[in-house]
Design goal:
- By secondary structure, the protein is α/β, with parallel strands linked by helices.
- The protein is built from 14 helices and 22 strands.
- Strand 5, helix 5 and strand 6 form a beta-alpha-beta unit.
- The protein is globular.
- It starts with a strand and ends with a strand.
- The protein binds nicotinamide-adenine-dinucleotide.
- The site of nicotinamide-adenine-dinucleotide has 31 residues, from helix 7 and helix 8.
């Protein structure tokens, strides 16, 4: 495996890939190791996870450099991700014992009914590169805490970070035969689909997710998919400060270079504030510092995958051809590495790919709307269902719109955020199942019902 730096296109590591044989050996070891791990008290397992969290925080700077080198994420955003993901460990510390304890439902003296939450066994975690800490922790830390063994396959674009997780989990006391990080791309992921895992937990694109669900369906084991989105934000005419609304919307769209599953991907703006909003949006986007992701001042670095440059260029071309106005950006940047100019397209509509297909890059389409009803209809005109947001002064007005959204997460006066205290889930093409929250702890368990009767 050749690992390239997206900021320069240069080779930074030449990695030895796993093979079907090494995978099989690791899987057999996990099978045995998991039995011992699951027999240990939750408190002990949690102690290892907390220790892992401390080690990561102690080595944060070095880890941020690795993440930036292989993904092109601006260094400050790498630091933010590593620090922010720690809240998953705080959540587990506060809730895991309760969520995994036996739950007594009825106790009459003669009849005792309870639920025990047993681990699934050995699970496969096939993951994405865009926020490897967040999306990785959502699965493997929760699965380990619940008593599972984990074979973790990071994305081929975040492999060095994946190996760091393995190193620090083992140093923290998670046995080697309980967590294994395997190296490889889609072909190796495909091999994992042929193996007999007790659950498949995937984060990535709709296309791959659907393929995984179809391939493993016959195994009748849990399959959870955290997929893409085309997340809308409606800016209503009663926002208190149009400029501030534009700054916040731009951050939701362009943070991590737009490569967030819950990035703002479509903007709908009330007609009475449309011109002012677009002007403020363009001004904000033009102020972004583009450059070397290792520089602390950079807000927009390269996109992680070279192939995405062509996807973005085509979306711009399609939109302009159908009547969009290119306000700023629109082309790959002429420099070394995979840079694309932060792009704003105004006068958009739903005939354009930029309003329908996931962009996953520094580009946003804006459409004018004349009523809340029109905004609602457009927001819902999508195959995805990850998040939806409204900026408005009026909670009731926003609530009416957001209650009607067929999305896993809704935001009033915020966007592009994830909290471990509430579930993270997508609907329709955005996925199935939930991570985070108490539900996300129990996602890695299977309930066993106990019916206990006193001797007759
Ligand atoms: P991807 O689907 O290209 O790859 C994801 C993983 O699947 C990688 O590890 C890859 O090696 C593996 N893979 C590829 N082909 C496979 C196969 N045939 N069998 C098994 N595994 C295979 O996605 P990506 O580019 O890594 O991530 C970007 C996508 O992920 C975007 O659509 C984004 O919205 C989505 N995402 C969703 C969430 C969420 O929580 N909903 C979070 C982050 C990213």
């Amino acid at each position: 495996m050749k690992i390239l730096n997206p900021a320069t296109g240069e080779l930074i590591a030449d990695w030895k890939e796993d093979t079907p044989e090494t995978l099989s050996g690791k899987f057999e070891a996990l099978r045995e190791g998991q039995k011992i791990w699951s027999a240990r008290p939750v408190e002990e397992r949690l102690e290892c996870i907390k220790k892992f969290g401390s080690l990561v925080q102690e080595n944060k700077e070095e880890l941020a450099v690795v993440l930036t080198a292989e993904t092109g994420k601006p260094i400050q955003q790498s630091r933010n991700e590593i620090a922010g993901a720690h809240n998953r460990i705080e959540h587990l510390s506060a809730y895991a014992l309760r969520a995994l304890a036996d739950e007594v439902m009825i106790d009459t003296g003669s009849t005792h009914e309870k639920i025990r939450y047993e681990p699934l066994g050995v699970i496969a975690n096939i993951s994405a590169w865009n926020f490897p800490y967040n999306v990785g922790y959502n699965v493997f830390l929760y699965a380990l805490t619940a008593g599972n063994g984990v074979m973790y396959k990071p994305s081929e674009y975040a492999m060095m970070t994946g190996k760091q997780f393995e190193k620090y989990l083992h140093l923290a006391g998670v046995p080697e035969d309980v967590f294994q990080c395997v190296s490889g791309g889609g072909a190796l992921g495909q091999v994992m689909l042929e193996m007999n895992f007790d659950g498949y937990f995937f984060t990535g694109s709709y296309r791959t997710g659907r393929h995984i669900a179809e391939t493993v369906a016959h195994k009748l084991v849990p399959v959870q998919l955290e997929l893409g989105g085309k997340d809308p934000l409606y800016v209503a005419d009663d926002v208190p400060d149009i400029k501030q609304a534009a700054i916040n919307a731009a951050e939701g769209a362009f943070y991590n270079n737009g490569q967030s599953c819950c990035a703002v991907e479509r903007l709908y703006v009330s007609e009475s504030i449309y011109d002012q909003f677009v002007e403020a949006l363009v001004e904000e986007v033009r102020s972004y510092t583009i450059g070397d992701p290792m520089s602390p001042d950079t807000f927009v670095g390269p996109v992680t995958r070279k192939a995405q440059l062509e996807v973005l260029r085509k979306q711009v071309e399609d939109a302009v051809h159908k009547g969009a106005i290119l306000k700023t950006g629109g082309l790959p940047v002429e420099r070394k590495g995979y840079y694309f100019e932060p792009t704003v397209l105004a006068n958009c509509d739903h005939r354009m790919d930029v309003m329908k297909e996931e962009s996953f890059g520094p580009i946003i389409g804006v459409q004018k709307v004349s009523s809340d009803e029109e905004a609602m209809a457009l927001m819902q005109d999508t195959a995805y269902g990850l998040t939806a947001a409204v900026f408005s002064s009026d909670e009731q007005r926003a609530g009416t719109i957001l209650n009607a959204m067929d999305a896993g997460t809704v935001y009033w006066n915020c966007c592009d955020r994830v909290s471990p205290y509430v579930p993270w889930s997508g609907r329709r093409n955005s996925g199935v199942g939930a991570t985070l929250s108490v539900q996300g702890i129990r996602a890695f368990t299977q309930p066993k019902a106990y019916h206990w009767r006193a001797p007759l």
